[in-house]
Amino acid sequence: MIKLIAGLGNPGAEYAATRHNIGFWVIDAIASEAGGALRSEARFHGYVAHARFHGLSLRLLQPQTFMNRSGRSVHAVARFYDISPDEILIVHDELDLPPGTAKLKQGGGSGGHNGLKDITLHLSSPDYWRLRIGIGHPRDSSSKEAQIGVTRFVLKPPRPKEQALINDAIRRALSILPHIVTGDTTHAMNRLHCVS
Predict the structure, then answer these.
(1) Catalytic residue check, 137
(2) Is the pTM of this model over 0.85?
(3) Which tens digit of pLDDT belongs to each residue from 169-181?
(4) Running DSSP on this structure, what letter comes out for residue 151?
(5) β pairing state of 102-106 and 39-41
(6) Which of the following is catalytic: 20, 92, 122, 179?
(7) 3.40.120.10, 3.40.50.1470, 3.40.640.10, 3.40.1190.20: which CATH number matches 4-193?
(8) CA distance 180 to 89
(9) pLDDT tens digits, residue range 60-114?
(10) 177 vs 34, 54, 57, 102, CA distance in Å?
(11) Maximum CA extent, the chain
């Protein structure tokens, strides 16, 4: 079962609407649904909430360390509450999936995602779960966006059409979250992937 859900992003109002902050958007939505209030916790280097979700005790986390140091925050919460990597779900933006797509998997490489690299380093394991929300790649976008590079692309807000697709993917992901949290990941993946 999942005991910690961490959504990745960058702190600060200037990043709030950017593609790289999808993880924060999902945590906000879960906290709202579960009635958990996110509060700043210095010892965890982030905003943390304790929520009851479908009868289960769940920690929610938004690291405030900036994306490439997310592992410091995730590891601090996991160590304090004795949560193992396979009980952690990381929600993040995914360049290799088109907008409107959401995929669930456990383990694997970082795919160049600096937040995942740092989490794997701090946990000394890649065996945590990942909920990947597609944002597309600049090479697949308009000619103007194709020239700005990955870093600038992820730090810009999605275009309106992309935003609508991303919002739909997040809604679908939230609808199968109870199955993920309770450990019924095969059912969750079947439901999520068959429509993505």
Answers:
(1) no
(2) yes
(3) 999 999 999 999 9
(4) H
(5) unpaired
(6) 20
(7) 3.40.50.1470
(8) 9
(9) 999 999 999 999 999 999 999 999 999 999 999 999 999 999 999 999 999 889 9
(10) 12, 10, 14, 12
(11) 48
